[in-house]
């Protein structure tokens, strides 16, 4: 473990000076629910005194907030104190606006960003004398938020493109060549997907269920190319979670105003989840394959022998055709160019189906319980210990419900779906295959469909045999009441699919709000630590 050298007695405390990555690792190891490390042992491991470790743990909230405040992590191992921008609130609002433009696929350039920065400053009451939005400021801002990779416009003699930065790939063959130089055990992908975590196919007390649940989180998933190593699931949501409950929360939770995985939030996942996870298991080079078309993945996130590489430009010609259970196939597929995102090849769908099965099971456990059990649950709820609410108590699902059930569902995704997801996505280099690469066969795609059908059938059986009152059967997703339970379950399972009209309408409304909304903020006093 490398630490920065400093002579003992040459400054506050003793021992080497800790950098940001080391502080984050200390926090992660001390919080670990499986094997928490003592302060004394951490002091030994990092070559510092216990007082230093105690200070790091006490300041964990500030350290994690600082780590997530910037998408630029490439030099984190050399950073001991991060300089702060002069107007952090302005930059945060501007970065959110840029993220929304990218999600809307609207052209953007540095001059547009500078003009918008001046507008935001005026709305915040910052005078032009205090904030000039110069090209020098823009250069520092773009580095802080990793924005240069998203801009394709050359202005003022500066090229703001990510070409040549070692992350973009122009073809599947180029990506395969890069992947072939790494041990398959240490090649990872990352995926994000939305989930309406409080949606149920029937109504419950508290206004939830009935398909009317619209509280959304973004799930962040990652696995290696063998499918045998999976990272703990992470949730991104807009709801605030009490600081004191963070250590006992079942999954990593990151808060973002619109539950988006933007650059700072992706940086938070990368630094607090991905880097510690892989570095606890290997010192070998690690490759993380990301989707360069996702705005949040555009920042600089490479350090300590971990390389990020973008998927090549998407191929639009291939389409999945499902014309009956015996004719599931891919058409117009050229294995030299076609690829897909690995976890979208059945894994995300399986996870959502497992989660929804567990959620329905939890909600029905209360509705089907004898009256004396319901009274005991109500008495426990009235004591208010903080964990007595949600679906198991007859109410709308909570964020804690989502965390618990997602962690369980992630562990129950079928191994054969995970282990073959890179192969089904055509992202295994030919040199690592025993035979010539082929597109996913009917049997592989059928496996995905059979799992989905199996979960749907189990949910249907639970609903048919339940004690649901008649008034609980309401319409789903703003539609009229389904004609039967099978239709209702089908709508329920697809409510937050990538192609769901309900999900897309919500996201598009949020994008429009972010693009057109004004910044409502009190006059901002500048920070004096670093003028930019």
Automatic annotation (TrEMBL):
InterPro entries: CenT-Element_Derived, DDE_SF_endonuclease_dom, Homeodomain-like_sf, HTH_CenpB_DNA-bd_dom. Residues 1-20 are annotated as: Disordered. SMART domains: CENPB. Keywords: DNA-binding. GO terms for molecular function: DNA binding. GO terms for cellular component: nucleus. Residues 78-151 form the HTH CENPB-type domain. PANTHER family: PROTEIN PDC2, TRANSPOSON. This is HTH CENPB-type domain-containing protein.
């Amino acid at each position: 473990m490398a630490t920065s050298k400093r002579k003992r007695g040459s400054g506050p405390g003793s021992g080497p000076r800790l950098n940001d990555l080391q502080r984050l690792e200390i926090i992660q190891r001390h919080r670990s629910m499986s094997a928490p490390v003592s302060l004394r042992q951490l002091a030994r491991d990092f070559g510092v005194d216990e007082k230093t470790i105690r200070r790091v743990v006490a300041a964990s909230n500030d350290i994690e907030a600082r780590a997530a405040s910037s998408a630029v992590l490439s030099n984190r191992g050399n950073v001991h104190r991060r300089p702060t921008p002069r107007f952090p609130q302005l930059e945060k609002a501007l970065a959110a606006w840029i993220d929304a433009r990218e999600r809307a696929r609207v052209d953007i350039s540095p001059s547009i960003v500078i003009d918008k920065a001046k507008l935001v400053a005026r709305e915040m009451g910052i005078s032009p004398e205090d904030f000039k939005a110069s090209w020098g400021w823009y250069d520092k801002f773009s580095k802080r938020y990793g924005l240069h990779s998203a801009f394709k416009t050359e202005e003022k003699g500066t090229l703001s493109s990510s070409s040549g930065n070692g992350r973009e790939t122009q073809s599947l063959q180029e990506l395969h060549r890069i992947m072939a130089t790494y041990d398959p055990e240490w090649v990872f992908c990352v995926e994000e997907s939305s989930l309406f975590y409080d949606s149920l196919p029937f109504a419950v007390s508290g206004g939830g269920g009935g398909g009317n649940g619209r509280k959304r989180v973004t799930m962040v998933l990652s696995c290696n190319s063998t499918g045998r190593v999976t990272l703990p699931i992470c949730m991104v949501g807009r709801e605030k979670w009490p600081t004191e409950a963070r250590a006992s929360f079942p999954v990593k939770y990151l808060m973002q105003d619109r539950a988006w995985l933007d650059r700072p939030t992706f940086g938070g996942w990368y630094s607090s989840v991905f880097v510690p996870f892989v570095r606890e298991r290997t010192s070998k080079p690690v490759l993380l394959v990301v989707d360069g078309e996702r705005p949040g993945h555009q920042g600089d996130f490479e350090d300590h022998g971990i390389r990020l590489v973008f998927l090549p430009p998407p191929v639009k010609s291939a389409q999945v055709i499902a014309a009956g259970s015996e004719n599931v196939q891919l058409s117009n597929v050229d294995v030299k160019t076609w690829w897909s995102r690995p976890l979208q090849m059945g894994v995300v769908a399986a996870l959502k189906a497992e989660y929804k099965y567990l959620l329905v099971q939890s909600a029905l456990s209360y509705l089907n319980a004898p009256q004396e059990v319901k009274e005991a649950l109500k008495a426990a709820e009235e004591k208010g210990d903080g964990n007595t609410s949600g679906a198991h108590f007859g109410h709308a699902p909570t964020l804690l419900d989502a965390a618990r059930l997602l962690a369980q569902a992630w562990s129950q995704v079928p191994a054969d779906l995970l282990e073959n997801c890179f192969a089904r996505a055509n992202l295994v280099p030919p040199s690592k295959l025993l035979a010539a690469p082929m597109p996913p066969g009917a049997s592989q795609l059928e496996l995905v469909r059979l799992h989905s059908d199996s979960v749907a059938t189990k949910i249907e059986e639970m609903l048919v045999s339940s004690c649901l009152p008649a008034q609980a059967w309401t319409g789903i997703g703003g539609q009229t009441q389904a004609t039967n339970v099978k239709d209702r379950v089908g709508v329920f399972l697809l409510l937050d699919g990538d192609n769901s009209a309900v999900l897309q309408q919500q996201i598009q409304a949020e994008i429009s709000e972010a693009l057109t909304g004004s910044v409502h903020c009190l006059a901002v006093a500048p920070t004096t630590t670093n003028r930019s």
